[in-house]
Amino acid sequence: xxxxxxxxxxxxxxxxxxxxxxxxxxxxxxxxxxxxxxxxxxxxxxxxxxxxxxxxxxxxxxxxxxxxxxxxxxxxxxxxxxxxxxxxxxxxxxxxxxxxxxxxxxxxxxxxxxxxxxxxxxxxxxxxxxxxxxxxxxxxxxxxxxxxxxxxxxxxxxxxxxxxxxxxxxxxxxxxxxxxxxxxxxxxxxxxxxxxxxxxxxxxxxxxxxxxxxxxxxxxxxxxxxxxxxxxxxxxxxxxxxxxxxxxxxxxxxxxxxxxxxxxxxxxxxxxxxxxxxxxxxxxxxxxxxxxxxxxxxxxxxxxxxxxxxxxxxxxxxxxxxxxxxxxxxxxxxxxxxxxxxxxxxxxxxxxxxxxxx
Length: 358
Fold this sequence. Notes:
By secondary structure, this protein is mainly alpha-helical.
């Protein structure tokens, strides 16, 4: 049965109207972009506070289900979590700042040593045919540009974290009130959701939590343990800047497959400035950490909660890196898991509608 001509004209006019609105918004970007940026920066503490609440809420519920008063359960979990973070910051930040300052002071020395390596590599390949020599020189130049950009990104990221320290200081208060008034937050979300979507929204959120909740909590714990172990290993073996390098290894480890390689690069570069022996030490440490994570920590703590094929994960990481850089790599897998749950719910929704129509 064909649709009336008027329906086609109506649909076409709606599509054209949408494109016109999008075009106008694009033209007005210089006006709304700064406002949106300020709004986003203002909401960052609330996003982080809500995420921490999401991490801690199951622990509070477990204590509450065992008979502990809710306020007491919140206080215990809150004090342990933020107390541990504050104590770690109290011990780690002075060391981190000291090591970053020392790294900044020694950058000219590292750059000079790096140029000597490049010159030695160039001299050792100077007898190759001209075509091969040109290709090697191009690869060396590209690697040097990439390495400089990589180091600049790491330093800029660290400095941004320091600049945000005052904004991040209010996160514990936001998390506390979220935990304290979690039922009121749920009721507010329930009332602002249209009635016809409420049951589906609850089912969808439960499936999302089932899919990524244990993965996120477990992955964060694994990254903390890997960062701590690598820091201790670098310190014991005499590698420079163990706290800084351990922090980088721990943060990048949250990225599946590529994270350990990204995190190992700064440690390998620093080790090369000391000696070949230290470089071998770093390589051994990274292999041991990979074995420990892949065969002990991840199976024990994270498990296989995502049920995603590695090819889909790799594709998501590539897309995430193109869209959002390092942040895109970190968020790629959780976003993929949410998309998977959304597609499954959409499939059942359309199937149910078809059965109703038939």
